[in-house]
Amino acid sequence: MTDHSTVQPGAEAWTANGSGDRAATAVVLVHGFTGNPKATRPLGEMLNDAGFSVDVVRLPGHGTSPKDMGTTRWSHWRTAVTHALDRALGEHDRVILLGHSMGGTLTLDLAAHRDDIAAAIVINPLIAAPPNPLAKVAPILQHLLPMVSRSVAGMPTDDIARPDVSEDAYPRVSTKASQSLLEALGPVRADLAMLTVPLLVVSSRVDHTVDPVNSDILVDEVGSSDVQRVMLERSWHVPQLDWEREEVEQAVRDFVVGVHEAAVEVAAT
Fold first, then answer.
1. pLDDT score at 133
2. SS3 (DSSP) at 69
3. Which domains are seen in the chain, by residue range?
4. Which residues neighbour 19 within 8 Å (Cβ) at sequence distance 6 or greater?
């Protein structure tokens, strides 16, 4: 799947090799629906500064134009993350997958179906169809309107409590792309019990885009016996750019360090 528009400044994919023994652990980071790497690159840079190798993915149709997104579907996004995982596994000893919002949905899907992912991190992941009435008529709407505004789709512009920060997500949403995401949610949730790797769940108590109950469902239904959860009080849907950015970074860093050190210890025995 090739995008036909120019990538927005700052929305480019980004990769970097780590340093020292931590370079053997790579983290693949995946942004959310209508978003772009502006929401995930800061976490990638933080992890790279800590010595880890990183791959900040730009999903097909994202970070360019809403028109490009209208030609993409769940299968395209899942394939892009799969390719990123395969590249990372070909170059590093282990890979951790991190996803925000729909990126979290993709993370949960792949971590449930692959046995070569060392651990998973999700930030305000989407698992259940939103209560927005538009979601219920999406199967019909996709044939009538190619695009709707974010507000109509129940997705606030910049769902971030800090007034000086923007993730620069699309102002319009492709109805066909939205429907493909909604159709994927059921199978992803049904397979949560198959996800058994260590899991970090970062949740905002206030989220106007993804109902916080999604994280509750995940913790209740996931198969992993090693689940850590961080609850955020002052940040909204994109906490890694919000008031509690430092708390998110610390939790992610500590989790990745723990996975890396546990793997090194096992390898040494």
1. 47
2. helix
3. 14-268 (3.40.50.1820)
4. 51
Task: Name the amino acid, one letter, at 8.
Answer: Q
83 Cβ contact partners less than 8 Å away, ≥ 6 residues apart: none
DSSP 40: T
Measured CA to CA in angstroms, residue 74 lies from 32, 45, 144, 174 at distances of 12, 27, 20, 12
Profile the chain (269 residues) by mean pLDDT over runs of 10 residues: 81 98 98 97 98 98 94 97 98 98 98 98 94 56 67 79 94 90 96 98 96 97 98 98 98 98 93
Angstrom distance (rounded) from CA 19 to CA 81 = 24
Q: What is the chain's length?
A: 269
**Contact indicator for 25, 18 with CB cutoff of 8 Å:** yes
Give the Cα-Cα-Cα angle 169, 205, 257 (nearest 5 degrees). Answer: 80
Return the SS3 of 147.
strand
Return the pLDDT at 218.
98
Residue with tokens 């490009």: 68
Q: Which two tokens stand for residue 145?
A: 């309107």
Which structure tokens are listed for 118? Answer: 């060392």
**HSE of 172, CA atoms in CB hemisphere, 13 A:** 14
Does the predicted model carry a pTM greater than 0.90?
A: yes
Q: What is the DSSP string of 162-175?
A: STT------SEEEH
Please name the residue that has the structure tokens 């538009």. Answer: 134
Determine if residue 27 is left, alpha or beta; phi over 0 gives left, psi from -120 to 50 gives alpha, anything else beta.
beta
